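Pair request: fold both.
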Amino acid sequence: MSYRLGVDVGGTFTDVLLVDEDSGATWRAKTASTPSDQSVGVLNGIDKVCAEAGIDRAAVAHVLHGTTVATNAILEGKGATVGLVTTQGFRQVLQIARSFVPGGLAGWIIWPKPEPLAALENTVEVPERMGSDGTVVRELDEEATRAALRKLRDNGVEALAVSLINAFANDAHERRIAQLAAEELPGIEVSLSSVVLPEMREYERALTTVANGYVQPQVARYVANLSAKLSAEGVPAELSILRSDGGLSGAGAAIAAPVTMLLSGPAGGVAGAVWVAEQSEHTELLTFDMGGTSTDVALVQNAQARIGRETKVGDLSVRASAVDVRTVGAGGGSIAHVPQLTRALRVGPQSAGAEPGPAAYGKGGTEPTVTDANVVLGYLPSSLAGGEITLDREAARAAVQTIADAMGLESAEAAAAGIIDIVNENMLGGLRLVSVQQGFDPRDFALVAFGGAGPLHANALGKLTGAWPVIVPPSPGVLCALGDATTSARDESARTVLRKLGDVSAQEFTEIFTELAESTAARLVDQGVPADRQTITYSADVRFVGQGNELPVSFDLADGPKGLAARFDAEHERLFSFTLPVGHELVNARAAVTGERPNVAPISLDESIAPPEKSGHTRIYVSGEFVEAALYDRLKLRAGDIVEGPAIITEMDSTTLVLPGHQATTHPSGSLLITPAKEA
């Protein structure tokens, strides 16, 4: 027998899920993350889950990994020193950027413009020019190029990005510069814009290419280190990395294009949420992943996560396909504080992380966090992660009391309730970004809550959004690892077309997209995915003639140019409530190829024959008063069991809170479906 192993490394915990590839049976484990060297936490998790399954490490054939290494390099500003090669006259392409300032009215007054990832002193120009149609306007001056590369070498650059004007139409000069760089800068990784993002718009192409080079050395070191340690520790597994768009790529492909994995971690959670929600017959979803450091939210239609063309990490926004996930700085470790100036309670985005963690963890943390507030309110059991972390209730109360004192509140419970209310509102803001702001009514969706802290806040978020039922999957704390283990290989190709749709014949239209699909399929074959197990999907960036911005639209190849135009009109109408009586322009063509989804056996619970057995009672603080809540062990719940709130349902990796006036019904697939009692 062979096994697949999904691993998700978060800011606080590392989650592991083991799948028997023959039977689909699964085992789960959770262990503390090790920020100084994430591979240590990964190996600890592998040991724990293999012991649980009673197997040897050598039986693990595939390790499927969602990682935040690339994300953290951007957020922490710890990427490589990147040199950028541009066409003569375009040296300040990153400094000029786009004339867009985030924020509301007069946001420009306080917005600090982020520094480009490639400094101006490490940006060089080379004499050359391509036309927008791919013709050579000016040949590449190789001697001047060598001199520019030697300057970058003397500046100590650690990675090289090459982004020439109109290289998307003809990449000959970029490929030649890569050859010259191999001679002048031996051992330096080179990112070409014609490979990373072969699309028009020089700023976005240059920025994405530089971002690829910025994270590439760190990603390469991490992947190589993890692969070596897996091998040294007796895990002869093939390592695959989760992409931002929810697919998998081989370790080599991930190192070559790390910009495609900036949202690797959150994408795994969305994939896992879709899988479990399908088991309970729900396909229209809002996903809500609350971990120790942040909360990730996304919207799913017809069991398909919305894929965007932008990846946003902090102030950086690059052109790379990614699940449309929005991240809020709100997690179990988010620190509550009262600024001296306003005397108003704030929660996050600062986090206590895994070290030292919340005060309740007993690792030296003293600042009040969301986890401490949940402890004070009585929502959490005495230990977490299967006994790995024992909670110190007195330390939690002492930390939260500092908030009560600062605000003049009468009790620590009142301060804790305020912390929870504020963090819930912060997360509601994220959910509105992916729903209301995109033209969707959250009441038309179910809310899937997971992550270690998600089920504690799920019922409250259901009340705030009106999204019912709230679905709490089995083992919600390790659902991201389930997503890693249940996803399939994926790759995509794109090219700029920039032609009026009315001028493109049906045959030419088919040829453009078929060529992209064939080249992408061939790359997946090289990664071990047979052609007969591949699925092809098509999308395009389309706009009205005369517009400056385009919309991504998915379609079937049989739709042809007219069908694509009709789909664009429908999407434009949905987003902006109008269309224009003008022609359409095909800007970028794209084909994505995915492999077969692996076999994972769904949970099937026995039918309940008696009311659920309570494991005890506890007092919790809700709506300004203490109430008696029943305790339940989730492992003892059976299909059809109904848990009336107020109640707390405990399991190894998470805790679910059912509020008064609500109830949780156990679905045969193992998920808890929380609804208002009158609607159950």
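--- second member of the pair ---
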Amino acid sequence: MRRIAAPLPILAAFSLALSGCGGGGDGNSVGGVAPTPTPSPVGGRLYADPAQESLSATDVQQIIAQAVGEAQARGLPSTIAVVDRVGNVLAVFRMNGARDDMVTSAFIPFLNAQNDTPVDAQGLTIPSAAGAIAKAITGAYLSSGGNAFSSRTASMIVQEHFPPAPTTPGLESGPLFGVQFSQLPCSDLVARASDGLIGPKRSPLGLAADPGGFPLYKNGVVVGGVGVMGDGDYGLDPNVLDVDTDAEEYIALAAIQGFAPPENILANRITVDGTTLRFSDASVDKLAALQTNFAAINGTAGALIAINGYTDGTLIAGTAYGTESSGIRRASMAEFTNGDAFVLTDGAGTNRFPVRAATDGAAHARPLTQAEAQAILEEAFKVMSRARAQIRRPLDSRAQVSISLVDTYGEVLGVVRGPDAPIFGTDVSLQKARTAAFFSNPVAAEQMLANPASAPFVQAARDFLGDPTALTGTFAFADRSGGNLSRPYFPDGELGRPHGPFSRPIEDFNPFATGLQVQLVAGNLLQHVGFVLGMNADTPRQCSGIPASPTGQVRLANGIQIFPGSVPVYRDGVLVGGIGVSGDGIDQDDMISFLGTHNAGQKLGTLGNAPKDIRADRIVVDLGDASVRLRYISCPFAPFLDTDEQNVCEGL
């Protein structure tokens, strides 16, 4: 069902569109107190590590009690989930009378109607607890010390027009279009509860666009997230020009009192392409009196519950991000030469993805060496360190992202992160790297044809591009290129145009039905839902149904991503890998991957970006009355903090 919203007068709606919502002062304020000042970087470093804060068991009890009190006041028995920053589920509380299930939306925003025949992941009946966990993870993973995003923010940035509203058709899609299908339960990067408390953890449904998920902060440091599911409708908000009265969002807002983000980093303080993002439509002055006594509601208003694969039904404390037990920590100098680098760890001291040589020597004569992989990652990290962030406050902060490198088999050759990069970018950067390497690979069509779910998209692409050999390595595809082909309009946002060959037509499209992206993982998602319900075994750790490479690695083992931030890596015109970047603005992500690869090539003289004559921006699509060129990358106009250099990717 579509969310019901109370319309505002035209002037007020226009004001909201410009200034965002959920901020302000006094009773309407969402944000918490200003953070404790971040320590200055030391030892020649450019970044300071986030303070090691965490949620205690008492904190988790208070958060749940506050949510339950508001749910009682609003008459909506709900399921409430709390996670820490790296996605460990700390508790799931089900109120008496709460719905067991929810249904994923089949609402088509542009047509203002339900899809009568749901496709992809539309119209699925799924446990409500899975939705609550996904919302909590969304709030935690999209946020950092420089930005606080909610599941309402996610709704705004994943739809087919940005900003989404009845008056905005004709604009391009959201900047993080497709990010909802990340952190998947089948991903080989994200951890599982059986792996212990290391993170980042998987989400049962990827990231959520349904309001009711917020990040949690202590002393200005993001420490987790809370998610609420109560109405049975797992959907999105198709209109940012009104203010919703959403009970789930109010319940979640009550939950974060005492743990709210600082006001100055809320999403409604951050603009993307001139549009202010949204954090919340709920306001503090409309909350009921807070209930903070967990003992008063535990066992009477509801109870903690176990969820297969996520929690055994006990309430636990969170881990402090940056510690070994969190699964993400600062790298040693032996692991990465830049002192600001963070890596993923197994919780016992071992880097999960150390820099290494490629494994695909059987595919081509000169695979990437360990030294070359190290150089690409280091050069990309240097570009990040110089770049001006788009989504972080205060203004002129340094960008912080995750960077992943893979070979042509999809094997990980290294993962490195900025100290405070949002967690979601870890899995997404790997998705992007693999996506660029896969669609540039000579075996792409062959492998897609071997999977019944993806096979129809091969002929669709060949017909659309007018190229019977498409997807056989003739052209190099960056994620921006593949993203062009994954939109419900081509060119992106332009009404009356055909849908891209990897997308559903607009008559079927919503964020649960994106086309190829969903079809590659739909079987994994359904199997995992069955596992959560106790009906079958869990999904394997590798997604997509694509045949395994000679090493056993599936090239798309955590799904594909369809928004920008990656490029394939070449040596003498031969594909040797892919690099993916995620965590800041998409143009920044593009630049870091592209310039990082270029600079490593300049340093080593042995590798670099794809030759210009095979980049996807040489592909021109004939639409009958127009010819449209695919795009490859787009870099910020004046991106660096240490120079006024402009057009830094031009001509490379």
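Observation on the second member. The radius of gyration is 23 Å.
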